[in-house]
Structure formats: C-alpha cells, structure tokens
Design a protein that fits this description.
It is built from six helices and 18 strands. The protein has 263 residues and is an alpha+beta fold. The chain has an 18-stranded mixed beta sheet that branches. Strand 10 and strand 11 form a beta hairpin.
Length: 263
C-alpha cells in the first residue's frame, strides 16, 4: 500500500495553480505501475519519490509518458517532503533525477528549486505554424526536451491563442511555450505552455519551461530576476532568477488530499 497526495503548485489557494500527484514509492516500484497510476490520476504530472539514505530520487509521468523534468511536480513533491516530516524545514532537499541533482530549499512558505538552464537556438518559423497554433511569432527558438519557444508582441496575443491541439500533436510544435511582456506592472512576462505531444493540451503552470524562459528574458532585458505570470485558465505566479548556468524557480503549494493506493 502506497500513500498518494494531490498538491496544487505555484499557488496558495486550492483548485488553482497546477495540480500534481505525489506518490511515496520504493526502489522496487516498476515503471509500468507508475505509468498506470499517472494515467489513473489524469493530472498533467505525477511525481514518484523514493526516499534513500543519501536523499531522494524522483521520476515524473504524464498520463501518456515519462518526462525528463517537471517543475510543478518537483515543487509538489518537495512540499510533501517538508509537510509530512521527511525533511526538516531548514534542511535542503536533493532529488536525484534523470536531469541530474535538483536542490530545493524552503524559506517560509516559499520553496526554491535549483534547475538547469535550457539552450535556445533561433529557428525559422515553419510555413504552417500560424495555421496550427493560431499565432504569428516575432521570434522562434528550439530548445531541449522537445520545447519550442515563441516570442509574441503582447500579452493579448498570448491570451487569445487557440491552438489546434490535434494538429500540434503530430507536428514539431507539439511542445510549445509562448511568451510576451506582461501587460500588468506587477509581472515581468507572461507565458502559456502546450504539450499535446505528451498528452497535455495546456499545462496550467509550467516550472520547467522557465529553464528556457529565464535565459531568454535575461537576453532581452539584461535582468536576472523576474516575476512570471502563467496566464492559463487556472493561472500561476513564479518568482524566477538566473544564477550562472542555473535557474532558481520559487513558488508556493497547498495539499488538496491524501489517500492510500490499494493496488
């Protein structure tokens, strides 16, 4: 029997932010079981945490596939590690993952994750891009883990985008983030993220996207600290910063439920 939690990440209010499930597993938990649980829970990501003598290991699954890095599920997992007493409030968490060691610290109600930066390569806008995504970018970049970043002129354009998810699923735009300067003075930039190629039409709040967004906006502005506003239907707020070749991503979280898995 394993314990499962559902957490809303990058928010302090239940039923907002980005929901993730967190399962406390063990080293013998098979990957196909993890995938079945993620499909059963049907949230954008489920994190599986294995406690060990030297820290924790973590894996992330969407309802369709395992992914190499997930921000909001890592934040959710860290939130549970602190809340359930696996880690003392003043101690740092180190999650071993396929993307390397990921460190998380807690300061008050805020959790700060130390993530890698993603490279950005300018690319030509594909001929069918606007037809598939409903947007006409000013600039387009490719990155790792399948990400494509599109820069738009305004938040209005970001908010009104209505991609064709079926068409995106079978195209090179199946893992897309779109960003623009924020129209609100208390935020620096806005973003929406779409990942139909891995079973997520629109992700409510996407921590890992900021591995590319923070270096991008640093190049645009020269700044190293930003407040990001993800303008999905559920929405979320992230404090982010560039620290050398790392990105610091800070957010809050709230536990929605705790249950026992019977199978």
């Amino acid at each position: 029997m394993k314990t499962i939690f559902q957490v809303d990440a990058f928010t302090t209010k239940p039923f907002t932010g980005n929901p993730a499930c967190v399962v406390i597993a063990d080293e013998h938990t098979p990957a196909d079981w993890m995938q079945n649980v993620a499909a059963e829970m049907n949230v954008s990501e489920t994190a599986f945490v294995v406690p060990g003598r030297k820290g924790f290991s973590i894996r992330w699954f969407t309802p369709k596939a395992e992914v190499k890095l997930c921000g909001h599920a890592t934040l959710s997992a860290a939130h549970i590690m602190y809340e359930a007493g696996f880690v003392k409030p003043g101690d740092e968490i180190v999650f071993g993952s396929i993307s390397g060691d990921l460190k998380v610290k807690k300061m008050g109600s805020w959790l700060t994750m130390d993530f890698p930066t993603y490279p950005l390569i300018p690319v030509e806008v594909p001929r069918d891009f606007e037809k598939i995504t409903g947007i006409k970018p000013v600039e387009l970049y490719s990155s790792i883990n399948g990400w494509v970043l599109a820069f738009l002129n305004s938040e209005y354009q970001v908010r009104r985008a209505r991609p064709d998810f079926g068409a995106m699923r079978h195209s090179e735009m199946g893992h897309l983030m779109i960003t623009a300067p924020s129209s609100e003075t208390n935020f620096d930039f806005c973003v929406r993220c779409f990942a139909p190629s891995i079973g997520i039409d629109e992700d409510p709040v996407t921590g890992s996207a900021h591995c590319a967004l923070v270096p991008f906006w640093h190049r645009k502005t020269g700044n190293t600290e930003f407040i990001s506003h993800q303008v999905s239907e559920r929405s979320g707020i992230l404090k982010v910063a560039l620290a050398g070749d790392r990105v610091l991503i800070s957010g809050q979280a709230v536990t929605v439920f705790k249950a026992e898995l019977l199978f």
